[in-house]
Each structure stands twice: as structure tokens, then as C-alpha cells.
Amino acid sequence: MAHEHKLEIFRGLWKFKSNTQKIWGVLAFLTAVTAVEVALGILKPAILVNTDILGMKLLNWIFIILTLVKAYYIAWDFMHLRDEKSALRRAIVWTPIFLVLYLIFILLFEADYIYNIYKDGYVAWEF
């Protein structure tokens, strides 16, 4: 039994006539997001590098968010999650997002602790 896939992206904002056109549309979107990431990585705007949010540079937060957007969209379109039941979609998508947020929390918490240990002079900066 053949299953008909939806030929639209962004909740119907872009509609395509064939699967080939849809693949090219998704490729264009992912290429644009990657180009923004690469441009920000090369240019490193001072406003983004010098602004700290929750102990991390704003530029790093932008990279993390754009990477999550790409991962979500790859799973949504290429793994055909849009055609699955909502409970399965949530289980597959939200689990890694919460895992990434938890790992970011650990990274920030532990890095701050290590920095304070070295800053207060308990251990020498000898590596």
C-alpha cells in the first residue's frame, strides 16, 4: 500500500508539485541555514562575540540553535516524521532536544566550577 507524502514544507507555506522539487526546496533551506552558520563563523561579529548569555557567548547560542533547527528539519522531512503519529514525533524530537539542553547545562556548570577553582588559586594553571 503506497503512502502519499505531503509535498509542502513550513506548514504549507511552500508547496511543490513533485518529490524532486520538495527535496530541492529542503536542500535550499538547509543550505541557507548552513551558509548563515558559516558566515557567522568566519565574520564573528563583535556584538555576538562580546555578549554573554548564561555564561556563554551569544554566537555560540546561535550556532547551537541553528544546529538544532537543521537536525529537527532533517528528521522532520527526510525521516518522514511529519507522517507519523504525534506521540512518536514528540518522543523522537523532544528527547534529543532535552538531552542537548541538559548537556549544555552540565557544560556551563562544570566549566564555571573549574574556572573558579583555577581563578581562586587552588590549583595551578599548569597543563
Could you walk me through the main structural features you see in this protein, from its secondary elements to its overall organization?
The protein has 127 residues and is mainly alpha-helical. It has one domain. It is 67% helix and 6% strand. The protein has a two-stranded antiparallel sheet with strand order 1-2. A two-stranded antiparallel sheet has the order 3-4. α1 packs antiparallel against α3. The chain is elongated and about 65 Å long. The chain starts with 7 loop residues before the first strand and ends in an 8-residue tail after the last helix. The mean pLDDT is 84.
Please give the structural blueprint.
Layout: E1 8-9, E2 14-15, H1 19-43, H2 46-50, E3 52-53, E4 56-57, H3 58-78, H4 86-119
Taking the alpha carbons of the first and last residues, their distance comes to: 62 Å
Low-confidence parts lasting 5 or more residues at pLDDT below 50? none
Mean pLDDT, as a whole number? 84
Number of helices: 4
Short description:
With 127 residues, the chain is mostly helical. The protein contains four helices and four strands; from the N terminus they run E-E-H-H-E-E-H-H. The relative contact order is 0.08.
What are the key terms here?
127 residues; mainly alpha; two-stranded antiparallel ribbon; 4 strands; 6% strand; elongated
